[in-house]
Amino acid sequence: MSTVAANDMNDFLAAEMKHFQSQLNGEVSAPINCIRKEAFDRFNELGFPTMRHEEWKYTNLGQILNQQYELARASFLPEDFFNQRPFADIPANIVVFVNGFYSTEYSTIIDDVSSIGIHSIAKLRMEKSELLTAHFSQYAPYTNDALTALNTAFLLDGLLIHVPKNAQVKHPVIVYHITEAETAAPFIQPRTILLLEEHASVQVLEVALSFGQYQSFTNCVTEVHVGANAKLNYYKLQHEAAHASRVDFTRIVQERDSTVNTLTVTTQGALVRNTLQFYLNDQNTTTYLNGLYLTGKDSLIDNHTLVDHAMPHCYSNELYKGVVGSNGQAVFNGKVMVRKDAQKTNAYQRNGNVLLSDEAIVNTKPQLEIFADDVKCSHGATTGQIDEEALFYLRSRGIGVDVAKTLLMQAFAAEVLEMIDDEAVKAGLIHLIENRIATL
Amino acid sequence: MLSIKNLKAGIEEKEILKGINLEIKAGEVHAIMGPNGSGKSTLSSVLAGRAEYEVSGGEVILNGKNLLEMAPEERAREGVFMAFQYPVEIPGVSTTNFIKTAVNEVRKYRGQEALGAVEFLNLMKAKMKQVEIDQTLLSRSLNEGFSGGEKKRNEIFQMAMLEPKLAILDETDSGLDIDALRLVANGVNALRNKDNATIVITHYQRLLDYIVPDFVHVLYQGRIVKSGGKELAMELEAKGYDWIKEEVKEAETA
Ligand SMILES: Nc1ncnc2c1ncn2[C@@H]1O[C@H](COP(=O)(O)OP(=O)(O)OP(=O)(O)O)[C@@H](O)[C@H]1O
Ligand SMILES: [Mg+2]
């Protein structure tokens, strides 16, 4: 496999694309491949975003693009590492990807296939699946997003979850995305497609983990369609090594009367950029967007969210919080768009940050764009230091300064996790976050 | 037990405590009274280790140890407890979890084993009864939305849990109804023994009917200008502070 040199990431990708296409055999003329090729052209037109790009003003991708990578291939996963994963004791449908490739060895589905279809995209491609062809690249358009275009162009493997009409999936689906960076620095591009038909419900928890000393770069795209009256709980835990980087683009389309609760927790990473977009395609939808970022030394965590209210009577509520220590940088940009027809919209947004050091930086920007007149919307952003009065109060009772700070930060972060109704998942997350906060 | 010698402290350029001298023996209760702004809360904050205040002179020795060199948490572990005039609200930190952490940190410092869940619960129940605090308060976030009286009661509860050697009550009686006042006093009296001491800061003689002090001091303009027995408090109640201020003026001009 070839390796990327600093400045010619684009040349590298062009060569890889050629190579990739030459190996597709029968799939070359498949509809999916037409999308791939168009997406690659679009990627070349757009180019990687630079800091001149309004949406990338504070986040310099150059740092990670300048490194050398190998295009990820199927890799190995040590059993010890897998056994020590978070949420290991929760009864769940387990889906495991290593460097973007589905692992049959580690994945176990416990719910009945009549209530949920969990598929490897690579397998669906082989089977020339209608389902894949019908939904691939339907909900996450690549026209204005170079990285989504790039992911689309290199579609190889990934996850497609299909919950049929009226199915209530009994157990959560826990998807482990594991980065193996022990043998080389991988460039990984997974794709996830979540499809919920009418009145379906499921809880999906994605957990990104990594091992190995090399840097890694994951460019993942998730597209979600939530049918009428369906309910999706979709939680992401980004818990890779401090030298791992990740760009995540997720777009969720909601139909009438549907409910989606999302939670994005980032515990560390060299550069993590999350773009989370909601398109509310019909009336009476409910959307919660919660996020928590713990940004430590040499880390940049960027969350860009968009809630696009296109139809009336929809509700959205967003709460993102961050604890930023050392020389960490956090970016929050939350856009709420209320279009002309979206009367009776209720849209709320809040972002709160605590800076633990003088070097820590937060750039927060709420953006409300309202074109309807009969709506209730609010937003607010705060950035502050740890409350000295509270800290003194705790210390004056004998609690050491570090423990006291940790208690205060845990309390600050806990509000974001309150919305999780699965107690086991919540407890697991709290445990992990508490430990991480203690190290910030 | 506690020896304060010529203690001077202030904030930025402003000197607030201008040479405090106070000797407290184990088993004693000292009341500190004085007009608003005379430095009573500053004194208790300096003893508890609030970093805002800069100590510019003097010394404070607690049981042979230099208190001023210690971080606030060390002082607490050495047995200093200040009941805040204005207890802080801390959303998201459960009162019970907070107290458990505090108790166990103090125990660890003293070389005792951490209390297990059951032992802690039993201790809490006993102390709750002693200070008549409601269980529901303790399951809430620390002081969040507590009424003024509930906050003060929570301070006394914490004191009961931590069993300090030196308790400093900064106007714990203000804002309390008569029943709560009696409870706070009972709490303090229950903890009184020959090994610990209490400083009671108050504006009202009334509290001193319940917590009978061995000494009463008047703090004025950053100095202790008068000391006496419990009858001094009665005199202050009857006559106010003007006569003391006069005395200070005369002494200055003399
Ligand atoms: N953090 C601070 N910043 C500025 N000035 C302060 C600060 N703390 C205390 N002071 C000043 O020091 C003086 C003493 O204040 P302190 O709170 O100690 O008085 P007190 O005797 O407790 O009064 P009270 O009876 O009203 O509670 C006052 O003039 C006060 O304004
Ligand atoms: Mg005061």
Q: Calculate the terminal CA-CA distance of chain B, rounded to whole Å.
A: 35 Å
Mean pLDDT of chain B: 92
Tally of separate helices of chain A: 10
What is the overall number of helices of chain B? 10
- Largest sheet of chain B, described in full? 6 strands, mixed
Query: In angstroms, what is the radius of gyration of chain A?
Result: 21 Å
Radius of gyration of chain B: 18 Å
Low-confidence stretches of chain A: 1-6
Q: What proportion of the residues of chain A form beta strands (DSSP E)?
A: 35-45%
Q: Mind describing the biggest β-sheet of chain A?
A: 11 strands, mixed
User: Largest chain-chain contact?
Assistant: A-B, 23 and 30 residues
What fraction of residues of chain B sit in β-strands? Answer: 25-35%
Fraction of residues in H or I helices of chain A? 10-25%
Spatial gap, N to C terminus of chain A: 38 Å
Structural class of chain A: alpha/beta
Shape of chain B: globular
Strand order of the largest sheet of chain B: 6-9-10-3-11-12
Give a count of the beta strands of chain A, DSSP E runs of length 2 or more: 21
- Kindly state the mean pLDDT of chain A as a whole number? 95
Secondary-structure class of chain B: alpha/beta
**Any ligands, ions or cofactors bound here, and which?**
adenosine-5'-triphosphate, magnesium ion
Task: Explain briefly what this protein structure is.
The complex is a heterodimer of chains A (440) and B (254). With 440 residues, chain A is α/β, with parallel strands linked by helices.
